Amino acid sequence: MSLFVTFNKMNVMKTDILPQQIRAARALIDWTREDLANASGVTVRTLARIESSQTLPRTATLQAISSALEAAGIEFISQNGAGPGVRLARRLDDN
Prior knowledge:
Layout: E1 4-7, E2 10-13, H1 19-28, H2 33-40, H3 44-51, H4 59-71, E3 74-77, E4 85-88
Antiparallel strand pairs: 1-2, 3-4
Helix pairs in contact: 2-4
């Protein structure tokens, strides 16, 4: 049984957040896996397996990861014609 759904010749986690988005989000805020592990409560080993597409995370695990990244200023961008991505969330003091 596949852990992934193939969409446009790309493996997509059924949770709608790609491993690439998690890696990109960490890069944007200059976080190591250890930083994300500490913020999310997910082990470094589990993060490594998720980011390398070796495992499909449970819903609660993915929620913990995305919540930690969002609290650190990351905004996940869904598939919108240009593909999914991440960006730094706009702060209220930005114009």
